[in-house]
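S1.2 Input.
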Amino acid sequence: MTEQSAGIADIHWLMDMLQTVDVGLVIVNEDYRIQLWNGFMENHSGLTPRQVREHYLFDLFPEIDEDWLRRKCDPVFLLKNRAFTIWEQRPYIFRFNNYRPITGNADYMYQNSTIFPITDSRGEVSHLCFMIYDVTDAAINKLALQQTNQQLRELSSTDYLTQIRNRGNWEEHLKLEFDRLQRYPQHHSSLIMCDIDHFKKVNDTFGHAAGDLVIQKVSDVIRKSLRTTDIAGRYGGEEFAILLLDTTADQAQYLAERVRRKIEQLDIMYNQQLIKVTMSFGLVERDVNIQNCLQWIETADKALYQSKQNGRNQVTLFKA
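S1.3 Output.
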């Protein structure tokens, strides 16, 4: 085989490899006009090399953020450095459909890419080459793991019956807020402890399943009555705790009274039987005399006990 024949064979081998490799290869000139488009890109875009050659990249693929991609490519042209993109920053450069059977639930192909310079005979960068990697499998697995971890975090912090915070998670937020108020004593936050009146009678009369339903309905009222910044938790069996951030005692009393009225008006049906319940509330605004979280809770509990002593179904504001 002559040297010329060997060179032709090498070129043929190289072109065959470029067309069959399972990586997207795109070469553009300085004006971002496409010069090379390999088989991977053809298979996923449905466009042949002849259809894309000399076409402006951003006209063919308007989904590409031109400003973002040019910012990525400018250092490659100027400094002859490589650039990289990963799917966590931007899911893809080219929006291709996902056809992988294992990750068939993905709407599109997740992509990583490498962008490197191609120089001419004078050593000047004349073209850019994009290498597009299909990382859909890894991306979907990672996203699924993140979702699972998030669900586990929510399960560990949420009361199963009421779907509001459990006691441990709520107390963590109480401690954080107390520490914040220690640093900024000019701020006001209030704590409400509340308890379903005569709840044992509900269980004894209608059964524990009915009691669970009552707790769920009451927690729904509490949750729907609060602002997004307020933090409610199930503190005990039929006892709830509500932390009202940046809220004075008067404001907290107004909210507690509104919740009390809504619960008083609840019609809870269980096995075609009507269950009516009421709730008692004790609240206190944090002040300098309260030295720790436990004392804050105990003070609100004293106000709650006062509501119980005075006939239940009422709101009591603690006064030193």
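S1.4 Remarks. The chain has a mean pLDDT of 90.
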